[in-house]
């Protein structure tokens, strides 16, 4: 049984980088928010937004169980299946006009042994926003209530900073 209900190109076209006007807080999580997918997970997949959900069918055809892979490997395969370019950058990386015109954005990846968390940098105010779980709205404050201006300094009870990625479309939209 296929896990995706629609193809990756259609999913990529649904990406919209909104900061706070999030329509589906109860059916999206931090991963959906980081990727700009304000779409109920039930319209995209047979299961919740989780690392590996976009690459599961592709990897299954190759005989690979996506959920046996590390979180970082799942993220890499998901981005490749969505045809999103990705490169590791410093969280201080500045998106110039060319980057913005080519639909680039920054996300930061946090992890621990059993879970992961994502933040996305706002192109409007340079704060880092995230969505905790399926019911919270996006916010730019960490677990201490501090405005997140650098993900390396953000405090999350259960997560440790891992890396920041510049994500973008391989072709202009």
What would you note in describing this structure?
The chain is α+β, with helices and mostly antiparallel strands. The protein has one domain (8-169). The protein contains six helices and five strands. The chain has helices spanning 8-13, 30-35, 41-44, 56-61, 71-81, 97-101, and strands spanning 84-89, 105-111, 116-121, 128-129, 160-169. The chain has a five-stranded antiparallel β-sheet with strand order 1-5-2-3-4. β2 and β3 (116-121) form a beta hairpin. The longest helix is centred in the middle third of the chain and has 11 residues, at 71-81. The model has no long low-confidence stretch (mean pLDDT 86).
**Radius of gyration, whole Å:** 15 Å
- The structural domain count equals 1
Strand content: 15-25%
Residues in helix, %: 10-25%
Give the CA-based shape.
globular
Helices and strands, in order, run as HHHHHEHEEEE
Overall average pLDDT: 86
Sheet with the most strands, sense and barrel status: 5 strands, antiparallel
Question: Which structural class do the helices and strands define?
Answer: alpha+beta
Please work out how many helical segments DSSP would assign.
6
Low-confidence stretches: none
N-end to C-end Cα span = 31 Å
Nutshell version of this structure?
22% of the residues lie in helices and 18% in strands.
How would you describe this structure in keywords?
single chain; 173 residues; alpha+beta; 5 strands
SSE layout:
Blueprint: H1 8-13, H2 30-35, H3 41-44, H4 56-61, H5 71-81, E1 84-89, H6 97-101, E2 105-111, E3 116-121, E4 128-129, E5 160-169
């Amino acid at each position: 049984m296929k896990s995706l209900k629609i193809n990756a190109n259609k999913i990529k076209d649904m990406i919209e980088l909104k900061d706070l006007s999030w329509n589906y807080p109860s059916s999206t999580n931090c991963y959906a928010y980081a990727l700009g997918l304000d779409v109920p997970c039930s319209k995209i997949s047979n299961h919740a937004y989780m690392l590996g959900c976009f690459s599961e069918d592709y990897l299954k055809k190759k005989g690979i169980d996506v959920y046996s892979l590390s979180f970082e490997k799942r993220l890499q395969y998901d981005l490749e299946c969505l045809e999103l370019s990705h490169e590791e950058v410093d969280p201080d990386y500045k998106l110039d006009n060319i980057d913005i015109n080519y639909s680039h954005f920054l996300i930061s990846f946090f992890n621990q042994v059993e879970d992961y968390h994502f933040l996305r940098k706002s192109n409007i105010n340079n704060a880092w926003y995230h969505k905790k779980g399926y019911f919270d709205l996006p916010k730019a404050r960490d677990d201490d209530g501090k405005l997140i201006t650098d993900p390396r300094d953000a405090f999350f009870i259960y997560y440790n900073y891992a890396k920041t990625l510049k994500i973008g479309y391989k072709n202009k939209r």
